[in-house]
Amino acid sequence: MLLTLVWWIIVGLIAGALAGMVMRGGGFGIVGDIIVGILGAIIGGFLAGLLGIGSSNIIVSIIIAFIGACILIAILRAVSGSGRFGGRTL
Prior knowledge:
- By secondary structure, the protein is mainly α.
- It has a domain at about 10-20 and about 30-50 and about 55-75.
- The protein is about 75% helix and about 5% strand.
- A two-stranded antiparallel ribbon has the order 1-2.
- Strand 1 (about 85) and strand 2 form a beta hairpin.
- It is globular and about 35 Å long.
């Protein structure tokens, strides 16, 4: 159980940090990146399950979590109105 939790934190940190770098505006700090990454892993895992994509590989898990984290960041920015698109603030 503890090893699984540590694994989720590591995947979440990597995915959240990557998503924070790719999405404009930077990350959310170490704790925020972990939270966004873990929630992104949940979102990405759900979407991957809908598409029939399974993951037993760490690289695939990170990619799925990264995609989910990017989706989560886009949703958070759209809701909060803090995203930048084409030089304009929405």
